Predict the 3D structure of the following.
Amino acid sequence: MRWNARTRIALASGFLGLIFTGFSARLIDISVARHDEYSEIAAQKNSIRQPIYARRGLIYDRNGEILADNAPIRTIIADGSRIEHPDRVAKVMAPFLGLKEDELTAKLTTDRRYVVIQREVPAETAFELTKALDAAKLRGIYADNDFKRVHPNGQMLCHVMGFLDHERHGIQGVEASMEDYLAGQDGFRYTEHDRAGREMVVYRGQEREPRDGLNVTLTIDMGLQSIVEDELSAAVKQLKPKNAIAILVNPKTGEVLAMASWPNFEPDKIAEAQPEQMKNHAVIDMFEPGSTFKIVASSGALNEGVINTETRVDCENGAWAYGGRVLRDTHHYGLMNVHDILEKSSNIGAAKLAMRLGDNTFYEYAKRFGFGERTGIELPGEIPGVAHPPSQWDKVTITRMAMGQSVAVTPLQTVMAMGVIANGGKLMAPHIIKSLSDSDGKVIKEFQPTVIRQVINPETASIVSNALADVVSAQGTAPQAAVPGFRMCGKTGTAQIPKPGGGYYEGKYLASFCGYMPAEDPAFVGIVMIDDANLPPHLNYGGLVSAPIYARIAARAARYLDLQPTLRAEPITEVVSRDNGDEDEEAHR
Amino acid sequence: MNATLNRPRTRAINPLQISRVLFYLALALVAGTAGLCYVSLKNTQHDLGERVRKTEAEIKEFRARNQDYQSRIASLSSRMTLRNKLESGFITMVQVPATAIARLTPPAIDNNDNMARAVAANPRLLP
């Protein structure tokens, strides 16, 4: 080979060509053949999926009062891979977060890219902290947006509202039942960060806007709720019961206007609450109703035509042997019509009315009044109660069930059943959600009243209503439920508390009163239940314990709702009622 | 004469082809300008991106503050707080005298029994 200029040029060119070919091959290998692998590494290093949190919907009462709100807070996060001087960062951060500098330095000395330094930092503090870090040119600390659910009214309405778990999901009350509407949908954005950890906006990738949660408006009227909770709280202080429950419902629409249960809890301090405090006894607990259940037998017998208003039933002078057992009234009643049976709350009379109906028809009426099935209210954990079918009854079951034993109901079922009498015979579906609206206030969905069924005809309802009005009279079992100027209707109930293994506790009673007002055109139907008040047995009756509480609630509610008195107010005479009985008896002195 | 002797003493220099030089110069200028424009646009894009980021952060901050203040207002004007203020004597309730209330819907009086009827009760259902 001649070693001339041409050869040297060819060799040099060939050598350079080889080098460039090598580089080109490597370039193609990196950018084409192993594109996915390197893209992933790059994405892991710089690109992140940034969540954009949706705002949780607020909860309002029917008048627009805020019941559950969101307070913005921040979670302070450290990216250890970007922190160059943990000690300097700690020195800046410590005063803002109230942490010790050395502890903070230890936390920040890490290669982990996501270290939670502190949760629930007020937005204002986080803002000042970020400014201080920027001024000191320190990086690697971020403030994640978060929120804290706050309840401006504290314990009020806590069981209806419910609360959230640590992942901000509703786990009780309306927060849980309306979770799908309240939560909204978080958005996201793929984006890249520079070496300093700042977002490079030009490299933003796929993005989805968050969808804010819907605001929920309840049917609850906080004015009435406040009255109910005030009175219930005062009663609890005085009577020291195991549980206390009060509910007000609009009988024409089924809207729940107030619902309170005791013991209660502070929804903003859920960690301090005991499980017993969190139970909404109005829907998740069942009780033997006692005499309030007598409206079923009376209404059924009238509605089926097996009796009329004049039909007289022999009340056996207070003791009736049937099925090997003796059923007693404390007073020795003789012949009584249905009006008197309700007014005097005769156990024997109610049992005989139920027997005239027959097992199957009586059971059917119990079901028609809504007992033994869930009402469908928008609250989680509602139970159906227990109403055994006639196939499971023994001979005396019908006599016991007629006076509210051998059956278990929820307070809400009882108040809805009383609503049947109040509204002319219709069983309304109770509801607590009035509407859903978006963050601009535009109503997305409005919940309408629903009639479940016509239980009894209006004439029957009117006759029973008339009798219930006399229950709240000097001759009835609940004169203490009266509100001057108004014609009131209602029924007392005093039930023994069953033991889990059978039988009843000695000296423990569930005292209740369920009624509505004004009788002519009811604005609300309500119930007050006091479970095991700390009273001697001879004072622990619905007419003595629950009726006065109901009267105080009703009187204040009437003023709040601006109900016009329908009767001339009469001078108040001192009347003391006693509601006792074998299981339920009334006397007056 | 020998031909070698006739050669000019200086070597022949290739004449400058001005048009080609200008062409490449223009090409370089266009490429350079395009490159500079690209860099400038890229910088502007980053600068705008940075402004967008800062503006978004500010908006987010304002929204958070707004929400915070709304939450505080709701808390400070809540029924519970007002009740506590009432109990502590910080505020008082003044009764509105009956003479100062103008009723838009005075209660109807039933001619039969001279009773006040607040609302349209269904007479058929009255006892």
Remarks:
- Chain B has three helices and two strands.
- The two ends of chain B are 154 Å apart (CA to CA).
- Chain B touches chain A at residues 45-46, 48-50, 52-53, 60-61, 64-65, 67-68, 70-71, 74-75, 77-81, 83, 107, 115-122, 124-127 (CB under 8 Å).
- The CA atoms of residues 119 and 125 of chain B lie 14 Å apart.
